[in-house]
Amino acid sequence: MFKRVLGTKDILPQEIVEWQKIEQLSRDTFKAYNYQEVRTPIIEDASLFNRSLGSSAEIVQRQMFLLKRERDLYALRPEGTAAIVRAYIENNLDKTSGMAKLYYIGPMFRAERPQKGRLRQFHHIGCEAIGSVNSDIDSEVISLANRLMQVFSVTDYHIKINSLGCQKDKEDFVDFLQRSLKSKVNKLCEECRVRLKHNPLRILDCKDDNCREIVKQLEIGDSCQCQECKEHFSKVKNNLDTLDVSYEVSPTLVRGLDYYTRTVFEITHKDLGSQDALGAGGRYDNLVKELGGPDMGAAGFAFGVERILLVQSQKPEVKSQELVYVIPLGEEARKNSLRLLNDLRQENIPSDTDYECKSLKGAMRKANDLGAKHVLIIGDDELGKGVVTLKDMVSGEQKEVSQEDIIKEIKC
Ligand code: AMP
Predict the structure, then answer these.
(1) pLDDT tens digit sequence for 258-276
(2) Is the CB of 205 under 6 A from ligand 1?
(3) Sheet holding 43-45, edge to edge
(4) 126 near 83, Cβ under 8 Å?
(5) Quick one: which of 254, 259, 253, 257 has its CA closest to 296?
């Protein structure tokens, strides 16, 4: 027997209602903020991610699902931003629409060690606002993420924000970290010793107790940031206050990817345990240019759908089935029921029949199991009179209705 691949999930019909609800709520919310949907391929050139996320990013180093075909190397996309920016540049969206506000919903792939809330195929709901360096975009994106939490009925979430500064500030900050941590290198965990050389920012969010203690002693502030970046961050915070978005400034908040500059943010939830991030994002002002496009600022975020489903305080109401179940008794009635089913379906009335019908009793049991609202019985008797027996499965009432009137009767 075949089994699903490690770290993947089948989403079965009884769960799909929740997924569809989350997707619908997302679409409605993005529409309210004037974001448009975009769908990019699941496979991309592997080098797109190396170039944008940075070769020392954990995703690039260890987590990409790579596919080699002849001389080409593809990757199953591990995240959405790089692909959206690639599509933005390739399709000249900067020329056609100026500021592009795009959103996406779809699967992402990372070869991580699976655990609760950590899969190898998971789903992102995310957005990218490309074409502006204005701090109003940062606050719009964060308040949109906050709004999504509300519409998804997620409570007790926590928003952390920080500013990494521009590229130059980031380099100064990296330099500061390397200098400050040089003498403490032996006290860092094994991974952070490597990070100190290639990706020192990641030391700031290491979960190891010793590393945390060392980071705490560094008393990190915004001293490496230029005046412009400080003002930018101030405006973001003021806007969030105006919009009544609660947040905490966390000077050690960093993202694992190279492309982030200035504002970064993360939304966590205590019920998620060690993998506590529900979503994250921020500004990335150099990525569009880095990938061959114009010099344009941008910001965005992504949420993990599986984690949202884990922490929703309220699940969507599942409406009872409106199904009409047709039960033909005998060969002649079966032919008649084919036409009847067809008519119902053309009117978009969910309907089905018992393909294995052996007895009325068995078919009624099936109708019950399916939660059908109405049952239509056609036997020799009904055929002779040109009627159908209509049974209301909720009240138990039963009556004969002429064949011509049956759709009208069911609709009312
Ligand atoms: P990231 O691109 O790593 O910032 O991810 C954004 C969000 O996607 C996270 O906050 C999680 O909610 C979700 N996510 C990331 N990786 C995984 C994973 N392996 N399994 C499930 N959800 C994930």
Answers:
(1) 899 999 999 999 999 888 9
(2) no
(3) 43-45, 72-76, 65-69
(4) no
(5) 259
